[in-house]
C-alpha cells in the first residue's frame, strides 16, 4: 500500500504569511498537489505535527486545503500546535488526531508528544501505556508516528529539543518484534536509519528546512518535500523523499 508523509506545514490563518522566507500555505499546497498527482492511489496521509505556526486560524486553512482529500489524514500535534483548537477544528472526516488506525495488516500508532510550554517533546505515562497496548495487537505490522525525534540527529541544537523521555519510548518499542518503523517530523530534514530491525524515518517540512548536522539553528536552502512509503504485506518498507523542485523538474522533462 502507498502512504504519504507530509509534515510541519506551519500554516497561518492568513495564507500570505511567511515563515523563514516561505509562504507556508502556498508551499503546502504545492507539495500536496504533487504528492497526490504522483501517488493518486495512496491509502492514507500521515501529518506529524506543527500543522500550524501558533495560529488557530491555520487549522481552517489546513481543512480547506485538504477539502479535496477523502482518505484518512492521520495527525499528531507538534510543539507549534494548539491542541484544543486542533481537536475542535479537525474532529471531522477525513481527519483523525492520534489514536491508532489499521489498513490491511498495517497499524499506524499515532502518538502525542506535545509538552506544554516546551519546544521539545515528552510522552506522558498514559501515552506510553497506549503505545504498549497498541503493540499487543496480533497479526499487524506497526508504524509508530510522533512529532519529536526519539533518537539523536547529530545536530546539537535540535538534539536539545527532541523527545525528552526517549528511553521509556524505546523500552516499549524494543519489547515488540512487530514494530517495523518509527516516523517523525520536527527536524525539517531527511533522516533514514535503523535501530535493530526497526527502520527510522524523518521527513523534510512542506516549507523551509533545517541544516543537517548544524550545531546551532540554521536554515537549509533545500526545497519543500514529502515522503512516500510503499508498505508490503510481509512488513517490508520501501521509502523515498521527494523534493518539490525534483518532482516539478521530472514533470516538465
Ligand atoms: Fe516544525
Descriptive account of the structure:
The chain has helices at residues 24-38, 57-65, 83-89, 125-134, 156-159, 166-173, 244-252, and strands at residues 2-5, 18-19, 22-23, 44-48, 73-76, 95-97, 99-103, 106-110, 141-146, 179-184, 191-195, 198-202, 209-210, 219-220, 225-231, 237-243. The chain has 253 residues and is of the alpha/beta class. The strands form four sheets. It has a six-stranded mixed β-sheet with strand order 6-5-4-1-15-16. The chain is globular. 42% of the residues are buried. Mean pLDDT is 95; it is low at 247-253. Fe (ii) ion (FE2) binds at residues 8, 10, 50, 78, 186, 188, 205. Fe (ii) ion binds next to loops.
Strand order of the largest sheet: 6-5-4-1-15-16
Number of helices: 7
Rough outline: globular
Strand percentage lies at 25-35%
Provide the descriptors you would attach to this structure in a database record.
253 residues; alpha/beta; 6-stranded mixed sheet; globular; disordered C terminus; binds fe (ii) ion
In brief, what are we looking at here?
The protein has 253 residues and is an alpha/beta fold. The protein is 25% helix and 28% strand. The longest helix has 15 residues, at 24-38.
